[in-house]
Automatic annotation (TrEMBL):
InterPro entries assigned to the protein according to its UniProt record, in alphabetical order: GPC_Orphan_Receptors, GPCR_Rhodpsn, GPCR_Rhodpsn_7TM, GPR26/78-like
Listed transmembrane segments: 6-31, 43-69, 81-102, 123-149, 169-195, 243-263
This protein's name: G-protein coupled receptor 26
SUPFAM superfamilies: Family A G protein-coupled receptor-like (SSF81321)
A single Gene Ontology CC term: plasma membrane
UniProt keyword list: Cell membrane, Disulfide bond, G-protein coupled receptor, Membrane, Receptor, Transducer, Transmembrane, Transmembrane helix
Organism expressing this protein natively: Camelus ferus (Wild bactrian camel)
Localization terms from the record: Cell membrane
GO biological process: adenylate cyclase-activating G protein-coupled receptor signaling pathway
PANTHER family the UniProt entry points to: G-PROTEIN COUPLED RECEPTOR, G-PROTEIN COUPLED RECEPTOR 26
Amino acid sequence: MNSWDAGLAGLLVGTMGVSLLSNALVLLCLLHSADIRRQAPALFTLNLTCGNLLCTVVNMPLTLAGVVAQRQPAGDRLCRLAAFLDTFLATNSMLSMAALSIDRWVAVVFPLSYRAKMRLRDAALMVAYTWLHALTFPAAALALSWLGFHQLYASCTLCSRRPDERLRFAVFTGAFHALSFLLSFVVLCCTYFKVLKVARFHCKRIDVITMQTLVLLVDIHPSVRERCLEEQKRRRQRATKKISTFVGTFLVCFAPYVITRLLELSSAVPISSHWGVLSKCLAYSKAASDPFVYSLLRHQYRQSCKEILNRVLHRRSLRSSGLSGDSHSQNILPVSE
């Protein structure tokens, strides 16, 4: 194993560690906080988190073993199962992000009727659709024997070893990425563009009211006026920054792998195995970034993390005080009359 392989293996190990800890923390927050569970986005977050955890404990270790051993890391049946999960979980992750963007669009564009339009039942139907959609392509690939170990990515994933099926596999791969990556990307762009448009409209209204107030308050101190203007600027930038993060992480993590899979279909474009594994690692890194992008940086999840931490520390303090009390009582000798 050369330095490139060692670096890719280290990247995989780091991604696995961050993904496992962060997604487990999101799951703990969902189990702990009833307020979070009552909201419709909790179902999308739960679906995304469980998929990320399953990818972390099944697919990432097999890819790590493939990088280290430079060969298929498991038997054919286990590799086909891992390839089925890899295709299903990647599609489910993309569609879950699209579902979260639709939820935010409804919340921003229809704030007064959001609870009526996005109920838990509606969220459950959307999750059921994502599962049905995500299961379609791996089931078809399994029936066509297009699941197995791919040396270019050192992973159990979509692959075809028969030259006579090259054209059919190319059409299947193109359709798969069009109805998973491209579809999700279009939904993300359309919904978040509308969210950004509405958010900027509300910011302009707030800015107009603020400026009118500042004009009326003639005796206001200049420092207060400057702080109000700076807050206006931060408010406009905050929405743009959040939406850029949502769309940017999706592109950075998934686009290199999808483009590599499409270029791979053309024999005229040589692809390095190191780049193939790196693009797969970038796709895996989405599982590590999702908890921070969609959950842990929000106020409700931060509050839930604090409550969980306080409860753990409180139990430890009670346990330690109980042990010290027992030891103290054992050290007291009975006094004879």
